[in-house]
Design a protein that fits this description.
about 475 residues; mainly alpha; 3 domains; two-stranded antiparallel ribbon; 2 strands; about 5% strand
Length: about 475
């Protein structure tokens, strides 16, 4: 049982049927996952197509709305806002009511948020195809979309803060710490990155703000949602409490203190004042130590669960994601230094690093959550155990191969550049790496296809009913219905 939940008197005579309106809005969870996985499929195809451009094999020449530059922006934006954010909202609808014992503000508001957010995603998708992009990395969304995103963030605040404020829990579990901070950070980060450089700060002065936005979107939205998700699901799947609640709070405060200071490390060697660059380097190395505390907490929680990697595919996703997290932390502590930047700046090394952390960590954890939740949302056991295994191994091997390929490509490119090798020669040298990267992309897409196919068949044709043994029924205590069981 997660330690923050109050103990509930268990009396068979007091058990009641579930209330008319359940604690968790399962339909909202399910449809946000469906929307997120749909966006991921489009984003993957966009990324695969863009890799063909590097091989000079672009299949759609002279079509402006399908030009490689626009396809690349669709790839990144649909990952960040279409896939990750939709899946995080699904996760919040499942976890927040269970951790607080309170329903979200409104089921109707939930459907408004779902519809509005996915209309925003469709508007962004169409706007990018039409060339209505801003010159802001990860903030290319059309200008008319930006106010709608802020409004959507406010609606999410209302929806999710309501149960957190109403809860009678005296000690909030650490996942809620990350969620409450992440909601605020999302709005502030988006405003800083999409309004300040566009309307208030121009030229070189906008560079630090853009660096902060690029990195804080990952560190102050994706990271707290991902860490909170891991701290909720891993103890439940393993059926044991998190190893150290105190260490999880160290990670929270370290993230809050160090992460907002490091965005300028994206612009090392630029005209930005060196004191800002040095502070970003120091803060980045410090936050890698903080991230290590999260990884230690995961592996110490997992320790002693003999056979869990063999038995539990959700734990496999979380375990490999944590392993990739360690690799990215170790890598980032070196690559952020000015000495290392001389080699890898503006090379494929950075692309490999970004894919490993955004896909290999947080997306893997989302896949672990889906593996755990989908039978509970559909009422059916997984249709095919083989598809589950194929999805896992194709994705892991594909992403691992892509990361190693891009890392090797980056080192090759960087060292050749340092030796003043002509650019044309460098491009010929890295072309085999780019071909390999495209092949690994097909493997990842095949893994995704296996997972989605299994999700569809599980929902529609699986004949084996799923019996939920992880989350309990409802029980009457002091004239109130509360959730019991795992949380």
């Amino acid at each position: 049982m997660i330690e923050s939940q109050s103990e509930v008197r268990r009396d068979d005579s007091s058990a009641v049927a579930p209330p008319t309106e359940p604690l968790v809005a399962k339909e909202l969870v399910k449809w946000h996952l469906i929307a997120g996985m749909t966006a991921l499929g489009v984003a993957m195809l966009a990324g695969l197509f863009y890799s063909l451009q590097l091989l000079q094999a672009w299949p759609l020449p002279k079509i402006a709305v399908l030009s490689p530059g626009r396809i690349r922006m669709i790839h990144t934006n649909l990952i960040a806002f279409g896939f990750l954010t939709n899946c995080f909202l699904a996760m919040l609808y499942w976890t927040v009511p269970r951790l607080t014992g309170q329903r979200v503000a409104s089921r109707a508001l939930g459907w408004v948020i779902f519809g509005a957010w996915n209309l925003i995603i469709l508007g962004t998708w169409a706007g990018l195809h039409l060339g209505e992009a801003q010159a802001i990395e990860w903030g290319e969304t059309p200008t008319w979309i930006d106010p709608l995103v802020v409004l959507g963030a406010i609606l999410v605040w209302i929806q999710m803060y309501t149960p957190i404020v109403r809860t009678r829990e005296k000690a909030l579990y650490v996942s809620l710490w990350y969620f409450t901070a992440g909601f605020i950070w999302l709005g502030l980060t988006y405003i800083m990155g999409n309004f300040f450089p566009e309307y208030l700060v121009a030229g070189n002065a906008a560079g630090p703000l853009l660096g902060l936005y690029i990195h804080d979107l990952v560190g102050l939205w994706v990271t707290p949602m991902g860490w909170g998700m891991m701290y909720f699901f891993v103890p439940i799947i393993l059926r044991k409490p998190i190893w150290s609640h105190a260490l999880s709070l160290v990670g929270f405060w370290g993230l809050a203190f160090f992460y907002p200071l490091q965005g300028v490390h994206h612009f090392l060697g630029s005209p930005i004042p060196m004191f800002a660059q040095y502070s970003a380097v120091i803060s980045t190395i410090a936050v890698e130590i903080v991230v290590t505390s999260v990884i230690i907490n995961f592996f110490m929680t997992w320790r002693g669960t003999d056979g869990s990697l063999r038995r539990s595919i959700p734990i496999r996703w979380f375990w490999v994601g944590a392993l990739f997290y360690f690799i990215t932390c170790f890598q980032c502590a070196f690559q952020v230094t000015l000495t290392f930047q001389k080699v890898i700046h503006f090379t494929d090394w950075v692309v490999g690093h970004a894919h490993l952390v955004m896909f290999g960590v947080f997306s893997f954890w989302i896949f672990g959550m889906i593996e755990h939740l989908w039978p509970k949302l559909t009422g059916h056991e997984w249709w095919s155990a083989s598809l589950r295994r194929w999805s896992f191994w194709l994705t892991v091997i594909g992403l691992g191969g892509m990361f190693l390929t891009l890392t090797a490509s980056g080192l090759t490119e960087g060292l050749m550049s340092m030796n003043l090798v002509p650019r044309a020669t460098i491009l010929e040298a890295v072309r085999p790496f780019w071909l390999t990267r495209t092949i690994t992309g097909f493997a990842i897409l095949a893994g995704y296809t296996c997972l989605v196919t299994n999700m569809i068949l599980t929902a529609r044709t699986s004949r084996v009913a799923h019996i939920d043994t992880d989350y309990g029924p409802f029980e009457q205590v002091d004239d109130e219905e509360v959730a019991i069981g795992a949380v």
